[in-house]
Design brief:
The chain has ten helices and no strands. By secondary structure, it is mainly α. α4 runs parallel beside α7. The longest helix is centred in the N-terminal third of the chain and has 27 residues. The protein is globular, with a radius of gyration of 19 Å.
Length: 209
Amino acid sequence: MGKKFTDKQIHILDVAEELIAKKGYEGTSVRDISSKANINVAMISYYFGSKEKMMSYLYQYRVLKTRENFSEFADTIKSGKPDMQMKEMIKYIVSHLFKYNYFHGFVTQELRRTDNLKDELLGFYQLFVKKLEEVIKKGVSVGVFTYAPKAEDILTTIIGSTLFVIRNKNFYELYVPHQDHQTYMVEAEKKVRINLLMSVFASLGYVAD
């Protein structure tokens, strides 16, 4: 991931992310983070400036790390059949959006204030588009896919559909069987993934063996 962050910063960010995932941003204090990271409270200000700025750093860190992980993931499946690769990429994107769902409200607000996140996300999206494009071209060339929709449109469909569900729980939970928030998230993710597979493969004119 390069040296954009120091080892100490990464340690603090990992701890912060773990706590925020469990307790939410508002429910996680700087003292909670410093205590679990075994550092002085003042170190948060020293490394990040404030809790709000730390969240911005955390998001940039998560984007960089996920981009790196996705690149490695795409390489591990590149020798597989195009339909398998497409299924796994859709699953990867949807699962990560659900896993890090606590970022989405923050990102919407932060994008209005800084170009840094826009730049990080641009590179992130371009990598996904490149990998999706490679799979689409391979699928068409071997006859598995009939059509070649634009990779950026497929990515837009995947991200847009998933974020809609995450941000509109009060609507979507009416159509998802669940007992609590945790089971809702699991079932909602499954439902979104299945629907996206049907939509994306229909747009590709997928021809099953």
